[in-house]
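User: structure tokens for this one?
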Amino acid sequence: MGRIPRTRIAFASGALLATTAHAQGINLSWNDCGTFGQSVETFACDTNVGVHVLVASFQSPVPLPQLVAVQSQIYFQVPGPALPAWWDFTSPTGCRSTFLTQSVDFIEGPYNCVDLWQGQAVGGISFTAGYVLPNCGRIRVAFAVPASTPIQVDNTRQYYAFKILIRNNKTTGAGACDGCSAPACFILDNIQLVQTVGVGDYTLANLLDRQDASWQCPGSVVSEGVLCQTSCPVPARRPSWGGIKSLYK
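Assistant:
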């Protein structure tokens, strides 16, 4: 696998019911925030019903008295030369173009971290297939509240930032999209915390507990040559990001 560029602006994260000794930063897990969630999601690819939930969370480095928006991006990668159809959420042409969505609705749980938005935010999502490399994808999200009703954020607790919903539609049967069983590795690149104009914004990119999450097989981030690798069989390593980046100058 080839490696995606990653922003490295420092900061890290914590938790609501269990404040940690960590400083600040970001987490990515399945089904809940940080270590309350899981690092690996497995699916038998045998039903079109159900949804898989990636949860992004953060702890701010400083109190933020006037937070009005959160912006973020997640990269993911699969083994092989290109994204399979099951992972193609391109709108409107992708095989599963409408089955990747976003949400900040934590009102009905889980409750291990702080519900930042309390149901008040609106937002959107975009997907780019083949971002930098053919076997990679990029997910970008943004959520905001009116500037007239900013949110106060402290620097002692971990907050739910957003969740990504991956639905099972078109997994099996007539019209199914191939590739559900392919392993994948997701990395939360950063979370941008935006305050009202002139107050000061922060971009968090350091991990608190877990910044990557895997699909089907345990995975890990690799610093040179690949974005991530899994315990499943993978193809030969591609050139490093430094070499790839030079092609885009």
